Amino acid sequence: MLINCVAYQEGRKLADIGIGDIRSYLERPGCFVWVALRDPSPRELEGLQDEFELHPLAIEDAQKGHQRPKLEEYGEHLFMVMQLLEPGAEGWEAGEVAVFVGRNFVLSVRNRSGEGFLGVRERCEREPELLQLGAGFVFYALMDAVVDRYFPLLAALEDELEAIEAKIFARRAARRNIERLYALKRRVNQLRHAVTPLQEAAGKLHGGRVPPVCQGTQEYFRDVHDHLARMTAGIDTARDTIGTAIQVNVSMVAIEQGETTRKLAAWAAIFGVCTALVGIWGMNFKHMPELDWEWGYPMALSLIAGSAAFLYWRFKRARWL
Q1: What is the pLDDT of residues 156-175, one digit of tens each?
Q2: Is 298 helix (H, G, I), strand (E, B) or coil?
């Protein structure tokens, strides 16, 4: 579906145009075209492929989707894939945006995501002196918007991790904490898989041999690269903290199981002594002096109760009960 198709010249909007008018505007000096698509059909992509002379392999990747974040060069054109992560009913839902960039055009193809980039377009149009830099600046603005959307996700992960850490020593909560930590670990890895390749790609846009379309905007891409480096450090810290928290919770489970085992062993010892004493006087021998003694029964009960009480005191003192 076509979201918008706009022509710009010298940093200012000329007009909303149709697909069939793209080529005539591309031929104008100082003019570039910015097209945005959402979940396009193969026919729509094929039509724009002809207008912008896009490489068929890049078009194939945009059609299939589910690509790893990456940056590829096809002659004078750039093709970048970035992941869009959004909170869903169960964890995060992953979409993606594929961006084609040429000397005088930008084409963004958004798939499986409800978050658009209208705010990015409005921001660029409010800054014509920057939009005058052309397709390279629009490419930066799209990339910067995607990266900025990662920061709230990382902050939410850190907040949830702090909430779990606050309950890490609560009794009978270790198993539940481990389940939450593993769910958190999956989301951290999902964010890491979106950020790490993007950081590598951003590094190619401001250092060394910079693609022609990005020349003049290297400092902007360096800023994006710095944001990604900071986010990578935060992700690594979160992963280490989660790993430590999981180990602590596993230890807590082992401690709780050990406490339960000690309690069972202590009660078994108490009842074992009682059972042994009862078993002695339950033997069917003819000559047992206690059987004919008037105080034999109270004495036996007293001995059993005293033995049980002594063992209970000893185990309580040893903190087994």
Answers
A1: 999 988 888 888 777 777 77
A2: helix
